[in-house]
């Protein structure tokens, strides 16, 4: 046995000295992997981000040359409208309004070049007239001031009408359908219009004046030419996925749709407030905890290290008859993931995972360390058990309370189902909709019912379903019941006829964006608003 621990016929040590060497190598590899390929996740779970980050998400690197085109169009029209030797910052408020109204008249002309020049000038204003700014902070302040001024002049409604006109442009759509590869030049007008609307929606949504925000929210919930802006954007997604309009810039469309829904329906805080108000109207208890607030405080969960090691069918751990070791390794790995999920300090059990990873190496090392000889495997198993049980560095730390950070919730139907099953099992009959009679049931069932009733939760959806059933069953008695016409009700009523098509279209975009190693010959191309003109078709 001593000879087996010190070495074998091949001269490769198989005892604890070899395990410590493997552990040292794996620790070094793991440290390099964490430093290079696994950076810490830093994000904020909220409705939106700061203005600089939101603006950065809107544009792509291929749109960089268009910044100069916007600035040139703006300056040319300044000279055209006889604002000589003046920049935007040197104009007074009356001159700024006069210039904006001249641009608004110009976007209604029939000549595409002149109309596009005016649209680019508006985009330059929404970009904060960046050439005149000395710092980023000054530029973002200029963006907010210009957007408010544009909205006061009625430019938002004008650009929504422009968007509607470009959506119905059959000439551009047919030209894009005939092309082998649609690129960024096929969606110039749409991209500029969507960028202007997106910037205005984001800035006005977070405006400090509550009355101003409410006015803009009401405008988004009011149909323009008989249709909501959100419904227009949903129709763009459907047309893009059906192949009739492959030139639509989906990235900007989805970002704008997200902002429009967030503005018109409200964010997390609005949702929580409305939920509490409606629960109070229905005589329900207020929800003390908030799922979104708890989710913000949770740390992101990472997958276990080297998880492919256990799923490899050719792994020599399974061939060596060490199933008990594999189960032990998984038990060593479990506390690490559990601490991450609970937001606990992961440093306490780093050595547990390091010890688990230390037994992973090349297939040749595994064959030499864990041979098919049963006595040899017993030596290794004994060493593993001894180290895991005696060493303070590798002992499994008590993970504490194993529970989710939310209070358990029980539906009324869950309690009814549990009582029916228990009565049929112990008594032989069931009492429909009887939640109080517990005669003939054992004490553990009494305790279980007590716990279920303690965590009873009646959701708003159950109340709404009950109200709908009451209206359907007694239409004469409830003929005066009219549902409240909220923003959500208006939107849902408008999108209900095309709801299946919208869901399928969003699923297609999600699948097209998912990373895969297989070629997607039949999928849609969601990169049309990013691909430059000079890239050949065979390289896409």
From TrEMBL:
Disordered as annotated region, ranges: 1-50, 339-374
Residue ranges annotated for the Far11/STRP N-terminal domain, each copy included: 38-357
SMART domains: N1221
GO cellular component, one term: cytosol
Stretches with biased composition (Acidic residues): 34-50, 346-355
InterPro entries for the chain: Far11/STRP (IPR040185), Far11/STRP_N (IPR012486)
Compositionally biased tracts (Basic and acidic residues): 21-33
Protein name: Far11/STRP N-terminal domain-containing protein
GO biological process, one term: cytoskeleton organization
Origin: domain of life: Eukaryota
Organism of this sequence: Lepeophtheirus salmonis
PANTHER family in the record: AT25231P (PTHR13239:SF4), PROTEIN REQUIRED FOR HYPHAL ANASTOMOSIS HAM-2 (PTHR13239)
């Amino acid at each position: 046995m001593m000879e087996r621990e010190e070495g074998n016929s091949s001269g490769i040590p198989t005892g604890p000295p070899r395990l410590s060497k493997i552990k040292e190598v794996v620790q070094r590899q793991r440290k390099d992997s964490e430093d290079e390929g696994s950076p810490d996740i830093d994000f904020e779970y909220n409705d939106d981000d700061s203005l600089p980050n939101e603006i950065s998400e809107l544009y792509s690197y291929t749109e960089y040359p268009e910044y100069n085109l916007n600035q040139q169009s703006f300056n040319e029209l300044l000279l055209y409208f006889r604002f000589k030797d003046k920049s935007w910052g040197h104009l007074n408020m009356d001159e700024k309004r006069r210039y904006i109204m001249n641009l608004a008249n110009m976007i209604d002309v029939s000549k595409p070049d002149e109309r596009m020049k005016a649209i680019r000038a508006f985009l330059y204003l929404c970009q904060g007239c960046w050439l005149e700014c000395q710092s980023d902070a000054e530029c973002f302040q200029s963006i907010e001031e210009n957007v408010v001024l544009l909205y006061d002049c009625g430019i938002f409604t004008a650009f929504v009408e422009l968007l509607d006109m470009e959506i119905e442009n059959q000439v551009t759509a047919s030209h894009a359908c005939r092309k082998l590869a649609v690129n960024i030049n096929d969606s110039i007008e749409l991209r500029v219009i969507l960028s202007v609307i997106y910037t205005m929606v984001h800035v006005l949504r977070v405006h400090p004046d509550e009355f101003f925000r409410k006015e803009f929210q009401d405008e988004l919930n009011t149909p323009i030419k008989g249709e909501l802006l959100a419904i227009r954007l949903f129709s763009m997604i459907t047309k893009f996925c059906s192949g009739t309009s492959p030139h639509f810039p989906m990235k900007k469309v989805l970002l704008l749709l997200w902002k429009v829904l967030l503005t018109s329906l409200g964010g997390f805080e609005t949702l929580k407030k409305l939920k509490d108000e409606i629960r109070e109207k229905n005589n329900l208890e207020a929800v003390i905890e908030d799922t979104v607030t708890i989710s913000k405080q949770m740390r992101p969960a990472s997958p276990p290290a080297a998880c492919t090691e256990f799923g490899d069918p050719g792994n020599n751990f399974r061939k060596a008859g060490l199933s008990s070791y594999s189960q032990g390794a998984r038990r060593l790995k479990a506390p690490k993931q559990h601490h991450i999920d609970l937001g606990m300090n992961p440093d306490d059990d780093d050595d547990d995972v390091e010890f688990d990873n230390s037994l992973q190496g090349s297939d040749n090392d595994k064959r030499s360390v864990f041979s098919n000889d049963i006595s040899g495997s017993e030596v290794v198993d004994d060493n593993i058990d001894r180290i895991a049980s005696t060493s303070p560095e590798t002992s499994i730390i008590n993970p504490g309370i194993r529970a989710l950070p939310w209070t358990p919730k029980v539906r009324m139907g869950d309690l009814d189902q549990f009582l029916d099953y228990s009565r049929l099992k112990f008594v032989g009959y069931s009492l429909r909709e009887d939640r109080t009679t517990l005669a003939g049931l054992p004490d553990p069932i009494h305790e279980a019912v007590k716990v279920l009733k303690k965590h009873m939760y009646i959701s708003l959806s159950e109340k709404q379903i009950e109200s709908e059933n009451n209206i359907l069953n007694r239409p004469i008695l409830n003929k005066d019941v009219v549902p409240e016409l909220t923003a959500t009700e208006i939107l849902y009523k408008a999108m209900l006829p095309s709801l299946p098509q919208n869901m399928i279209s969003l699923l297609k975009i999600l699948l097209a964006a998912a990373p895969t190693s297989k070629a997607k010959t039949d999928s849609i191309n969601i990169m049309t608003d990013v691909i430059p003109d000079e890239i050949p078709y065979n390289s896409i």
